[in-house]
Specification:
heterodimer; A: mainly alpha; 2 strands; 3% strand; B: mainly alpha; two-stranded antiparallel sheet; elongated
Chain lengths: 504, 591
């Protein structure tokens, strides 16, 4: 069983990478072959994750599956792959989002089909590599790998701003990568000899010897990827100008990946104290959540609006990550997954309808309920998840975060306000798209949505609802209230049904 | 009794049956004939009524008084997210009322939306309201309760025409939904704080219930609710707002009663709601709007019931008024339009069946032995003696007088001839509202026979006499309305309107309550949008992008330009830079 899980662990980043290589070697005109290769390899990755999820049982805070191969032993660098609870959740998210982007989107220009598939698979491989890497060098390598395919994917947007958005993303990402390189080297130096880049060992050593200055360089790298205030401005611009596939991957993969990096690398190296910065990070999260919510209320461009909604959810996740200070960050992780799934669903919906309508202005895409009630109705799960309506994964994540911070009434109120504002904003936008004047002639043009798009949206909807009712589906751990780092928080939190099941 | 007990224990069917029927109605709607579709949707509405009635019989006269059939869905569910269902006497009461109203709304919808293209979706949504009510009223855990609470609000919003244009119920649905998001989050915060801060939790949950009940100042959605289809409006006000709000207040009643100031606050809010409901109801010119404000008035009385420490009075008031007012909305809806009340006038002509049903409902509002009569007696009997108590009882009579007047004004429209000569509505038009009126009488008799002691039922003879007094006030209001009303003038300016208002002030008050309702609905949005602009344009675009990023980029560009200028191959520039650098170095060393 261990061997199988190790093979599946390696298969997570290697399957899409192999697919990218094979698809890249195919002739440019073999469009169908390339497409089915892309579908096949992304679905295979998702299946590998599902099997892994079934095999892996609940474990304590450590790695559930791990594989170490020496790489450059003299420098302390090794190929250390592994998955813990959070990694398992995030890898599932990325595999799902990658499959969604691969199957539901297709470039408008026929000559870019092959590169589209190759870049999507490369991006998925890079992101899965980041999640599975437990050696810092390996982590950074995969972190950089994600950058290149995104640069090319983003530059093919429906608007002229696509290239400039891609350039902006590239520059900010390179900046964050440089900071991360320097920070990692400083951290490794501070950890002393024998030199190692292994995340677990570094965490143990630094927990004893104190906080190195390199942490200050690592932090912005992750915060830029998470697009939290004040490092957020690249994301709304990018989301509004990039094609649907890149939008789905950005909202569903890149942003949560920043949160994963923050939780796994920064918090682990700081022994889950946030190097004394957790209080600041919590407030940054609150400001991001509130700012994203209020900014989404004034948007006229649907994709930009959704970008701010995602921003707000990432802010909530940041609060969950930074506030808990636990070994295993359940609220933050669940919120990251919820933000990813909900974001992917909404960006898929928006991408399809904007492509069909040829416009991103909300006022120009009204009356969808009368022409496509089923397709529009399914997208409501994404809206409901963003609005934290019960029965969706967004609700689960929001409740977990709110429960963690329920000992701080002020923070709880701010976050509840942010959830309310985000919900109001996204529901209002959805209502305007569904209702309003029906432009039958406009919507009747072309064949849309494609059957595969409807199927994928339906599956995504199903996942959002299932994880809303059964959160244990994506994470095997049986959460106990007493696990909380703050021993009082466990006893203070409500026992489900204890106080309201009275009756007469 | 065994059959009743077994039906009560199978309470999951209370929401599974309507949910499954809703799915089939929605999915197969276009392929089924109108009759088959109606049959399917009626099955989903009737079965919960029968089951909850059996459960009520079991709880009232059966051997067991405790909660029944606890079911926990634990598959892959985390600890705080477990779905737990249980049937309690309180839940049975609420479910019975909810399912009866859903059945009435479904019968009404079958008749009124027959020609509508998307009627299968509409009927499915009516069933969804029933299913959501089933989840809420059998909930026994935090998440289940929240799920029921939110799904009931969502289903009602969609039923009200969430996706329709502004002329229809879209505005109603949207406003209702936004208010209910506030209510849902307040409830969530309250439940999360339940074992940490009991006072805070009680405050949050009470606030959630107040928002749900549409009490001042959260009544901004009520004026718009008349735009919704009449069956949707009945469910929105009756099941989703009034019943759900009171049900949740009842669930936390033990905690609620321990907070000292809570009784005073709810009393003031409730009394304000009653006074405001009277004033606003009198001022309206459209029948549906008049009835909408009467729901606010009922909610106010229920809150006052809690503030005087008698939740039973509140429950009785909800039960009676929900049935009667729901029936009145349905009765009026038959001539106010088949689906939407339109400015162009009724599209279905008035019918004698509707008029009969209307009169039954008016009688059920206060005359013995209706449930409303019992409720008013219980409420008046529970009120403490003294000046405050007297004032409250006078307020009850005043409210009934106003109701009589308002209902007479509506009836004058109902009784007037239809100028268009349209085909009168069929028997269905009177079936649902009339049935609700008869149910109110039957429930009143059941209450009388189950608790025939007047001490329990009316709080002594005082309550009974005041109930009689309020019935007399209703009759007086009706007669007053008869004396001054001219048929056919409801929608127009008339001298009777002058009697009820001092125009300038009353318009302000009655429209949205000195603008409070509108202010509560709009002001936060305006402020948040302003903050959004500040965040987006001010902080994001200007400070971060233009000032910080732009300045950095320009600085780098400037350095680059300078370097390019220097490196253009001319020796004197190299020399100049070298001299400058040397001087700086010397200066640095000297320091």
């Amino acid at each position: 069983m261990s061997l199988i899980s190790e093979i599946l662990l390696l298969a997570l980043p290697l399957t899409p990478a192999t697919g990218a290589i094979i698809a890249g070697l195919c002739p440019r005109r073999a469009i169908k072959t390339v497409r089915f290769l892309g579908w096949g390899f992304s679905i295979a990755t998702l299946i590998a994750w599902i099997i892994l999820r079934v095999i892996l049982s609940a474990a304590d805070n450590g790695l559930m599956v791990s594989l170490f191969l020496p790489w450059v032993p003299s420098l302390g660098i090794g190929l250390h792959f592994g998955l813990d609870q959070m990694g398992l959740m995030l890898s599932g998210l990325i595999a799902s989002v990658g499959t969604v982007a691969m199957i539901a989107t297709w470039p408008a220009q026929p000559d870019t089909n092959r590169s589209h598939v190759v870049f999507l698979l490369l991006a998925e491989a890079g992101m899965l590599g980041v999640v599975t890497a437990w050696d810092l060098i390996l982590f950074i390598v995969f972190w950089e790998v994600t950058l290149v395919p995104f640069f090319f994917l983003m530059g093919r947007g429906p608007t002229r701003g696509g290239v400039s958005s891609a350039t902006r993303f590239f520059i900010t990402s390179v900046t964050s990568s440089v900071l991360m390189w320097v920070g990692v080297l400083m951290v490794v130096k501070a950890a002393g000899l024998p030199r190692t880049f292994d995340l677990l060992e570094l965490g143990e050593r630094l927990g004893i010897s104190g906080v190195p200055a390199g942490m200050w360089l690592l932090l912005p790298a992750f915060l830029i990827r998470m697009a939290v205030v004040p490092l957020h401005t690249w994301f709304p611009v990018a989301a509004a100008n990039v094609p649907a596939a890149a939008g789905i991957m950005l909202a569903g993969g890149v942003l949560p990946l920043g949160g994963y990096g923050l939780a796994q690398v920064f918090e682990r190296l700081c022994s889950h104290t946030g190097c004394g910065l957790n209080a600041w990070l919590t407030w940054i999260g609150v400001v991001t959540a509130l700012g994203g919510g209020v900014a989404s209320m004034v948007q006229r461009d649907i994709k930009r609006l959704l970008a701010y909604v995602c921003l707000a959810q990432i802010g909530l996740a940041l609060v969950g990550i930074s506030f808990s200070g636990r070994d295993w960050l359940e609220g933050g992780s669940m919120m990251l997954v919820a933000a990813g799934l909900g974001g992917a669903c909404l960006f898929l919906f928006a991408g399809v309808i904007c492509e069909a309508r040829g416009s991103q202005r909300i006022s120009e895409i009204s009356g969808l309920w009368r022409s496509h009630p089923f397709f529009a109705g399914m997208a409501f799960t994404g809206v409901a998840s963003a609005a934290a309506i019960p029965g969706t994964c967004g609700f689960v994540g929001s409740v977990m975060v709110l429960r963690e911070i329920s000992v701080e009434p002020l923070l709880s109120s701010f976050l509840a306000g942010a959830i309310l504002v985000v919900g109001a904003s996204v529901v209002w936008a959805y209502r305007r798209i569904l209702g309003g004047s029906h432009l039958a002639a406009v919507w009747a043009k072309g064949r849309w949505p494609r059957r595969r798009q409807v199927t994928i949206l339906a599956l995504l909807t199903l996942v959002i609802v299932l994880t809303g009712f059964f959160p244990g589906l994506i994470s095997p751990r049986s959460f106990k209230l007493s696990d909380s780092a703050n021993p009082d928080a466990g006893s203070q939190a409500p026992r489900a049904g204890a106080s309201i099941s009275g009756g007469e | 009794m065994d059959v009743c007990g077994n039906l009560a224990r199978a309470h999951l069917l209370l929401w599974i049956v309507p949910a499954v029927c809703a799915i089939f109605t929605s999915a197969l709607g276009r392929r089924l004939s109108h009759r088959a579709l109606s049959g399917l949707s009626l099955v989903g509405a009737i079965l919960p009524v029968a089951q909850s009635a059996a459960a009520a019989v079991f709880f009232l006269w059966g051997p067991q008084a405790g909660n029944l059939g606890r079911v926990e869905i634990g598959f892959m569910t985390r600890d705080p997210f477990s779905l737990v269902f249980e049937l309690t006497p309180l839940g049975t009461w609420a479910m019975l009322l909810c399912s009866i109203l859903v059945l009435a709304a479904q019968i009404h919808a079958i008749g009124s939306v027959a020609r509508l293209v998307g009627r299968h979706r509409y009927q499915a949504l009516v069933l969804t309201v029933g299913a959501a009510g089933g989840v809420l009223f059998t909930a026994a855990s935090m998440v289940t309760l929240l799920f029921g609470w939110e799904s009931l609000a969502l289903a009602s919003a969609f039923l009200a025409g969430f996706w329709e244009s502004e002329q229809g119920g879209g505005r109603t649905g949207m406003r209702w939904l936004l208010f209910q998001r506030v209510s849902g989050l307040l409830l969530l915060l309250g439940l999360l704080a339940l074992q940490t801060y009991s006072t805070l939790a009680a405050t949050f949950v009470a606030a959630a219930a107040l928002v749900r009940l549409g009490q001042l100042p959260f009544h901004g959605w009520i004026p718009d609710s008349s735009r919704a289809p009449s069956s949707a409006m009945a469910l929105l006000h009756g099941a989703a707002s009034l019943l759900a709000g009171i049900f949740v207040l009842d669930r936390i009643w033990p905690l609620f009663s321990q907070v000292e100031s809570m009784a005073l606050v709810t009393g003031i809010v409730g009394a304000s709601g009653v006074v405001f409901g009277i004033l606003a109801g009198l001022q309206q010119h459209r029948p549906q709007k008049m009835l909408g404000w009467l729901f606010l008035l009922t909610g106010g009385f229920c809150l006052m019931g809690y503030s005087v420490g008698d939740p039973v009075a509140a429950r009785l008031l909800v039960s009676g008024n929900m049935l009667v007012l729901g029936g009145l909305v349905l009765a009026v809806g038959t001539f106010a339009g088949p689906l939407f009340e339109t400015e162009s006038g009724p599209s279905v002509a008035k019918s004698p069946h509707t008029r009969k049903a209307y009169l039954i409902l008016v009688a059920a509002l206060a005359l013995p032995p209706s449930l409303t009569f019992v409720a008013l007696g219980r409420f008046c009997g529970s009120v403490p003696s003294g000046t405050i108590g007297l004032l409250i009882r006078v307020l009850v009579c005043l409210a009934m007088l106003t109701c009589g007047w308002i209902l007479r004004r509506v009836y004058s429209e109902l009784a007037s001839k239809d100028p268009d000569g349209k085909k009168p509505a069929g028997r269905w038009a009177g079936a649902a509202p009339g049935g609700l009126g008869v149910t109110a009488f039957v429930f009143g008799l059941a209450a009388f026979f189950s608790h025939h002691e007047s001490e329990y039922l009316y709080g002594g003879s005082v309550g009974f006499y005041w109930a009689l007094g309020s019935a007399a006030a209703l009759l007086a209001g009706w007669l007053l309305g008869t004396a001054v009303a001219v048929p056919g003038r409801v929608g127009k300016r008339h001298w009777t309107d002058r009697l009820t208002n001092s125009q300038l002030i009353m318009d302000k008050i009655a429209g949205t309550g000195l603008g409070v309702g509108e202010m509560v609905a709009r002001l936060p949005v305006i402020i948040l949008r302003a903050l959004g602009v500040v965040f987006w344009r001010g902080i994001g675009d200007f400070i971060i992008d233009t000032l910080i990023m732009g300045t950095t980029v320009r600085t780098i560009e400037g350095i680059g330009t300078a370097m390019r200028y220097i490196q253009n191959g001319r020796v004197q520039r190299y020399m100049f830079v070298l001299v400058l650098a040397t001087l700086l170095l010397v200066l640095a060393m000297l320091r």
